[in-house]
Amino acid sequence: MSDLRSRLRLCHPTGVAVGAAGMLAALVWLGGVAMPVPVATGGDSTVQLRMIVVLAGAILVAVPMRSPMVDWEVGAGPLARRVELTLLAVLASVGVVLVGVCEALVRSPESAASLLRAQAIWLGLAVVSARLLGGWSRAWVLPLTTLFPLTYLGWDAAGEVRWWNWLWQQHTATGCWALAAVGVAGAVLALWATPWRTRRLRGRLRRGRGAPRAVPARPGSRTKAPAAR
């Protein structure tokens, strides 16, 4: 097990530490920088840099999971899977601590709760993106696509924040916390759906629909041809 851990650790990038330090510095010193962004109903929305930093942090957790051994890891056994999940859990925990503690100290616990909620949603999307699109190097795709609806479509005609706009809703918004729960559940399901499990599930579904189960022939056995009539 220790050899396997060492092998996987060497294959994964270590630049995540530099990225985490940069994210922390941006969150503390530049988090309050605001940028006006137009919205569909007219006017502008104010995007603060700390929102983008949290998005980058969620992607930063997932992307370093990529390694040169990606093909081997996809079909790896339980020990390698356990190492992969442990690494992801450690990176996610570090991200939660950095965002939560820094935002609570620099601004407020309420703001920290909102950013942690956004981080949970984006991290869940990053894991799902990696699973659906074929690898950890594509973990950024789904999280990044949420920026347009959040910033441009996130308000109704009356100027009220839509219930799903987790960046601008209050930290107590039930709907946004439900989205965070769905994001975490989606990440767990995506991590569970390994290639061998999905193949096994598809086989069970085919058998459930009445498809005959293929019986492998014994080594050395010969199949007799049907007798001519």
UniProtKB/TrEMBL annotation:
It comes from the Bacteria. The keyword Membrane applies. Keywords: Membrane, Transmembrane, Transmembrane helix. The chain crosses the membrane at residues 12-35, 47-65, 85-106, 112-133, 177-196. Residues 208-229 are annotated as: Disordered. This is Uncharacterized protein. It comes from Streptomyces alkaliphilus. Residues 211-222 have a biased composition (Low complexity).
